[in-house]
Write a structure and sequence with these properties.
The complex is a heterodimer of chains A (174) and B (396). By secondary structure, chain A is mostly helical. Helix content of chain A is 81%, strand content 0%. Among the domains of chain A are: 1-83, NADH-ubiquinone/plastoquinone oxidoreductase chain 6, subunit NuoJ (Four Helix Bundle (Hemerythrin (Met), subunit A)); 144-174. In chain B, helix 3 runs parallel beside helix 10 (241-266). Classes of the chains: A mainly alpha (174), B mainly alpha (396).
Chain lengths: 174, 396
């Protein structure tokens, strides 16, 4: 039981507790904050895997930027506390059950493979050497150049879409 | 094994305690100097009764805050209301962990780098932690259940998100030249002499970074989150006693850490004309720390100076300035730095000149476009160009 194991269990427990509280809190603000806790402890797990860059990006993008917008919207809409019943009804309930079963199956599959000592866990253990940002940059501009550029195109499309939507609203106002 | 214990546990603990206490003392010094300097600038005395020159005034204030009744209003969301000051203070404090506050110092044969942790992603760590600072403000504002607080919180979160972009982009030019994310490496790369420091090579980025830093710390001229005339006290209207004091401490700590980061990134860190390498491995450590300390202090004085000199921005001015001036300038600076780095084989003089010229061009273009936009609007509406009371609809 070395320090890394202890930290792993702390971060793992915190991220699980955070994830459970996201769906069990009745107030959206508390749910959003729990999600931030989950993201943050996942960043901790990334650090334990030696992926410092990914950890920092996880905090900057998810915990720092996206969740701020979530909170912003929740506050502006002033969503009240959700009632105990009536969130999952009709079709939604069916979809939720199917998704839950799929997700559970996936989890069990990974757990069984991990107990067998299979590839995913082994490769995660192999990556204890910290991966430098330089190395990630090199990979992005050589091996993964095409996916990288495609992603940037998608982002650009999203950007243009946002601008078009906002512009149209402005012209109708005027 | 014994050496291990000393090097891996005792020395880091001493460093952490030293820096944490230095920060708290720094906050007290800042509160004192803010009040004295503002008094000096406004031709009055400021607090000068408690102790020599009023130096003990912050301690008296602290005692007052501690012994005041810890009031929690009935209408607040209690858990988050209590949590919010800590959510602001903790990010402010832990950012300093990656800032090198001096060269290394040799004591009893052990070489100790004057830095808590030399992360190889130092800058990203700083950006990540500063991006978390906004939660304290937003949560405090929302939990207070008060419309002025909420407005202050929304303003501040919009402001911090906008200026965070500039903060991040302004650094990229430096990263390209030093090809490292570690703050220690960046400080070492700049060398001893001011004409090689990053503030000359990346002058527009330096200005943009500093401005964004002011906005991130919610200082005047960007303190719209707590504009007294409009919002009582903004997001901390409902806070009193020590919780209010913690909000204040966090603001000053953010300033101190921000100054330290600017000094490291742009002003050569602990270097000053080779002074830092005078003397043996012990004295050079002390001197380098002193140089860093003084540089940070000078920058903090500029913080105070600006606060008591410039009036507050209007909300639309703030957003226009951030998105239409700072962001294009930093983006151009990245492109220009990259292009000139390749075409001139890393000639720093050309990069410096190119950055300044391109920044002027960008500002001129943006200003021209804004002027044309204003002209066409006033031609259509035949109304005065300045839209009245834009503050609220900019928030919505």
């Amino acid at each position: 039981m070395n320090a890394e194991m202890i930290l792993f269990f702390i971060f793992g427990a915190v991220s699980l507790i955070g994830a459970i509280s996201v769906i069990s809190f009745r107030h959206p603000i508390y749910s959003a904050l729990s999600l931030i806790v989950t993201f943050f402890s996942q960043a901790g797990l990334f650090v334990l895997l030696g992926a410092h860059f990914v950890a920092a990006v996880q905090v900057i993008v998810y915990a720092g930027a996206i969740m701020v917008l979530f909170l912003f919207v929740i506050m502006l809409l002033n969503l009240g506390t959700l009632s105990a019943k009536g969130v999952l009804t009709g079709k939604l309930k069916g979809i939720a059950i199917v998704l839950a079963i799929l997700f559970a199956a996936e989890g069990i599959y990974i757990a069984v493979n991990a107990l067998k000592g299979d590839t995913a866990v082994a490769s995660a253990q192999a990556a204890t050497e910290p991966i430098t940002t330089e190395y990630i940059g090199e990979l992005l501009f050589s091996k993964y150049l095409l996916p990288f550029e495609v992603t940037s195109l998608i982002l650009l499309a999203a950007l243009i879409g946002v601008i078009v939507l906002v512009k149209r609203e402005n012209t109708t106002e005027n | 094994m014994e050496i291990d214990l000393v090097e891996q546990i005792i020395i880091p603990v001493i460093k952490v305690l030293f820096i944490a206490h230095l920060l708290v003392i720094g906050v007290m010094a800042m509160i004192w100097s803010e009040r004295r300097v503002s008094g000096w600038m406004q031709d009055r005395l400021g607090p000068n009764r408690v102790g020599p020159q009023g130096l003990l005034q912050p301690i008296a204030d602290g005692i007052k805050f501690l012994f005041k009744e810890d009031l929690i209003p009935n209408h607040v969301d209690k858990p988050l209301y209590v949590l919010a000051p800590a959510m602001l203070l903790v990010p402010a404090m832990i950012t300093i962990a990656v800032v090198p506050f001096g060269d290394s110092i040799a004591i009893a044969g052990i070489d100790i780098p004057l830095q808590i942790a030399d992360l190889n992603i130092g800058i990203l760590y700083i950006l990540a932690i500063t991006s978390l600072g906004v939660y304290g403000v937003v949560i405090g504002a929302w939990a207070s259940n008060n419309k002025y607080s909420l407005l202050g919180g929304l303003r501040s979160s919009a402001q911090m998100i906008s200026y965070e972009l500039t903060l991040g982009l302004a650094i990229i030019g430096i990263l390209m030249l030093s090809s490292s994310l570690s703050l220690r490496t960046i400080a070492i790369e700049q060398g001893s002499y001011p004409w090689k420091w990053n503030f000359l090579i990346h002058f527009p980025a330096f200005l943009a970074f500093t401005t964004a830093m002011f906005a991130e710390t919610n200082r005047l001229p960007f303190d719209l989150a707590e504009a007294e005339q409009e919002l009582v006290a903004g997001y901390h209207t409902e806070y009193s006693s020590m919780k209010f004091a913690i909000f204040f401490m966090a603001e000053y700590m953010n300033m101190i850490v921000g100054s330290a980061v600017v000094v490291t990134l742009f002003l050569g860190g602990w270097h000053f004309f080779g002074l830092e390498s005078i003397g043996g491995p012990f004295w050079s450590g002390i001197i380098s720390f002193a140089i860093f300390f003084i540089k940070t202090g000078v920058f903090l004085f500029i913080f105070i100076w600006v606060r008591w000199t410039l009036p507050r921005f209007r909300y639309d001015q703030l957003m226009n300035f951030g998105w239409k001036f700072l962001l294009p300038v930093t983006l151009t600076s990245i492109v220009v730095t990259g292009t000139l780095y390749v075409t001139t084989n890393g000639n720093l003089i050309w990069i410096g000149i190119g950055n300044v010229i391109s920044a002027f061009i960008v500002v001129a273009i943006v200003a021209g476009m804004l002027a044309m936009d204003n002209n066409s609007k006033s031609a259509v509406q035949s109304a005065p160009t300045a839209a009245p009371l834009r503050g609220l609809d900019a928030v919505e």
